[in-house]
Specification:
The protein is an alpha+beta fold and about 325 residues long. The protein is about 35% helix and about 10% strand. It folds into 3 domains: about 100 residues, Beta-grasp domain (Ubiquitin-like (UB roll)), CATH 3.10.20.30; about 130 residues, Orthogonal Bundle (Fumarate Reductase Iron-sulfur Protein, Chain B, domain 2), CATH 1.10.1060; about 70 residues, no CATH class. It has 13 helices and 7 strands. Bound molecules: iron/sulfur cluster (2 copies) and FE2/S2 (inorganic) cluster. One iron/sulfur cluster (SF4) binds next to helix 5, helix 8 and helix 9.
């Protein structure tokens, strides 16, 4: 089988030096791309053959160190893992290469990740266990107990999810998906015997797990399949189970969501807003509510929400999968 011929692709690359530049520029580099090339090959080619002043980070070249994460056409990728042909299929032959976070750019594709590490430290991303000075045996962990970590330990701290999260983009206090995944990883570890300190850290209003808007972007971009939103949902449950949940709009939203499905077999959108918001807060959703009613996505009469004809089955499902103290 003959190899596919190379294709000429224009890479429009973000250039900026925080020490000397007021605004960034974009420089176009035309490169012949083969079907085997990953984005890091292109950056290396540009630096070695076309423009030695281009700066970017790379180390392992095997998707392990997490340092080469950047954005192509706005989507976070690992440069050493992302095949260019696949990008061409999606975006065509003009690709824009930018740092993970433009506002944190220091030199070209290199960013200042300090906020990422500060957030990471907030969740105590380490095992907190009492260990004897001279233990006689290893602390055995069964395969089933390892499975409880849900592969959260696959995270390579690349920051792709953190710098793609819309909640974090508008709220600098939000701890972010990578740190939550790390918090879950140690909270779920049977050897960890920290009380509620870690859960209290992720349970804060304005910065904690309740400010996630469940857009799924973190799951979408993660190159290691960590699925941070799944870990955030687990932390919600852990907070409830530990009896730490406070009565606020986010926890009321979770409570009503479950109750609505258990009661009607479906989500009662209007009731959800009324219960979660309480008082006057619900009036700010009036316009969207009317639009939803017009499109048949919400019920006018919250006292007469239609029920599924499989209620017995649904109730059993909800009861069997719910361990949280709501
Ligand atoms: S699901 Fe939540 S944490 Fe993940 S990107 Fe969206 S808002 Fe951020
Ligand atoms: S969860 Fe995934 S995307 Fe986020 S930092 Fe870890 S490896 Fe990167
Ligand atoms: S260079 Fe290490 S993950 Fe890409």
């Amino acid at each position: 089988m003959s190899a596919r011929p190379s294709r000429k692709v224009t890479f429009k690359v973000f250039r900026f030096n925080a020490e000397t530049d007021y605004l960034p520029t974009y420089i176009n580099y035309d490169v012949d791309v083969t079907h085997e090339n990953v984005v890091l090959d292109i950056l290396t080619h540009i630096k070695n053959e076309m423009d030695g002043s281009l700066s970017y980070r790379r180390s392992c070249r095997h998707g392990i160190c997490g340092i080469c994460s950047i954005k192509v056409n706005g989507k976070a990728i690992l440069a050493c893992k992302q095949n260019v042909d696949q990008l061409i299929e999606t975006y065509g032959t003009e690709l824009t290469i930018e740092p993970l976070s433009i506002k944190r750019a220091m030199k070209d594709l290199i960013i200042d990740k300090e906020d990422f590490w500060v957030k990471h430290a907030m969740v105590k991303p380490y095992l907190d266990a009492d260990v004897e000075d001279k233990p006689e045996n290893e602390h055995f962990v069964t395969p089933a107990q390892v499975d409880q970590l849900l592969e959260a330990d696959y995270c390579i701290q690349c920051g792709a999810c953190h710098y793609s999260c819309p909640s974090l983009e508008i709220n600098e206090q939000f701890i972010g998906p990578a740190a939550f995944a790390a918090g879950f990883r140690f909270q779920a570890d049977v050897r960890d015997n920290q009380d509620n300190e870690r859960l209290n850290a992720v349970n804060q209003e304005g910065s904690g797990v309740w400010d996630c808007v469940k857009c799924m972007e973190c799951a979408e971009v993660c190159p290691k399949g960590v699925n941070p939103i799944e870990k955030i949902t687990k932390l919600h449950n852990m907070v409830f189970e530990a009896g730490l949940a406070k009565n606020n709009i986010a926890t009321r939203h979770a409570v009503y969501f479950k109750d609505s499905v258990r009661k009607h077999g479906q989500l009662d959108e209007a009731g959800l807003v009324i219960y979660s918001e309480k008082g006057y807060g619900m009036y700010k959703h009036m316009k969207v509510g009317m639009q939803m009613i017009a499109k048949g996505k919400a019920h006018v009469n919250i006292f007469n929400v239609p029920k599924s004809d499989k209620m017995d089955e649904i109730k059993k499902l909800v009861d069997s999968c719910s361990t949280a103290k709501f």
